[in-house]
Amino acid sequence: MKAICLRARGGPEAFAYGEVPQPRPGDGEVLVRVHAAGVIQTELSWVPTWTTQAGGPRPFPVIPGHEFSGEISALAAGVRDVGVGDLVYGLNDWYRDGAWAEYCVARVADLARKPSSVDHVHAAATPISALTAWQGLVERAGLAAGQRVLIHGAAGGVGAFAVQLARWRGAQVIGTASAANLDFVRSLGADEVIDYRAERFEDVARDVDVVFDTVGGETLERSWGVLKPGGRLVTIAASGERTTDERVRAAYFIVEPSRTQLAEIARLIDGGALRPVVGAVFPLAEARQAYQHKPSHGKIVLRVVDS
């Protein structure tokens, strides 16, 4: 099959487009014919990109990309609940070859039926970002109707879903973004937007119930002061993984795949409560350009099949 792969450790300059063996599904897995795959521009800095789950070096070639939308092409023996030809979207294992390829392998537990109201490109822009927003706001923070939530990086891939999910939960939503993206964040349902370059968010947002942070650093540190007593902060900023600050360690989380949550997210998309935002689309062979592209908002997606 055709795929983007790395044959040595490096940056996007090391991406190569060529032939690699097609994977085979194992227990509890399916083979997916990939139609589109999402781009995460921090992936080459992730530990699982280069190491096995046991801690040793990953064998080359390594295929990046772990969110996809496509069609089930084959099932491992004993797989139930899905069938060949089903249109699905989801994630695959961080420690396995990814979805920047014509085919990928994924566990049934890590995928769900694709939202029927959007194409494969928009479905592929959804899994990691929407699951992160869901797990941060719904699972960890327990965001409820009537609460005030401050979302940092509200125009980003995760932030855009977080704004929409918070709105769906009935919260009052405040988002930070650059001046160029303020109207975009309003269009997602934010009640209030803050140009983080023009004003300090803590001068505007006070006594909030939840802070959802995608930025980290100084933004994260300044956010503790805007919480009301008993308020909750969650962060996905990479610095949270390395910190010794117990508050930050408790607030930090890494997204996990969930078939149940993906199914609920698909229902919300089909019901009009959520809309995936695509910032740019590149063909699979142009993964290097896609990885280096910086859209003003929305997700970058690789199109594998023209459909």
What does this structure look like?
There is one protein chain. This protein is α/β, with parallel strands linked by helices. The protein has two domains: 2-126 and 276-303, Quinone Oxidoreductase, Chain A, domain 1 (Alpha-Beta Complex); 139-251, 3-Layer(aba) Sandwich (Rossmann fold). It is built from ten helices and 14 strands. Helix 3 packs across helix 4 (157-168).
| Number of domain modules | 2
Helix tally equals: 10
CATH level-4 homologous superfamily of the largest domain: Medium-chain alcohol dehydrogenases, catalytic domain
| CATH class category of the largest domain | Alpha Beta
Runs in which pLDDT lies below 50 for 5 or more consecutive residues are none
CATH architecture of the largest domain: Alpha-Beta Complex
What's the Cα radius of gyration? Answer: 19 Å
What fraction, in percent, of the residue positions are helical?
10-25%
Structural class, judged by helices and strands?
A: alpha/beta
Summarize the entry for a quick read.
By secondary structure, this protein is an alpha/beta fold. It has helices spanning 47-50, 120-124, 127-140, 157-168, 182-187, 217-223, 239-242, 246-251, 259-270, 287-292; strands spanning 2-6, 15-19, 29-38, 67-75, 87-91, 103-107, 111-113, 148-151, 172-177, 192-195, 208-213, 227-235, 278-283, 299-303. The chain contains 10 helices and 14 strands.
Features:
single chain; 307 residues; alpha/beta; Quinone Oxidoreductase, Chain A, domain 1; Rossmann fold; seven-stranded mixed beta sheet; five-stranded parallel beta sheet; 10 helices
Q: Secondary-structure map with pairings?
A:
Blueprint: E1 2-6, E2 15-19, E3 29-38, H1 47-50, E4 67-75, E5 87-91, E6 103-107, E7 111-113, H2 120-124, H3 127-140, E8 148-151, H4 157-168, E9 172-177, H5 182-187, E10 192-195, E11 208-213, H6 217-223, E12 227-235, H7 239-242, H8 246-251, H9 259-270, E13 278-283, H10 287-292, E14 299-303
Parallel strand pairs: 8-9, 8-11, 9-10, 11-12, 13-14
Antiparallel strand pairs: 1-2, 3-4, 3-6, 3-14, 4-5, 5-7
Helix pairs in contact: 3-4
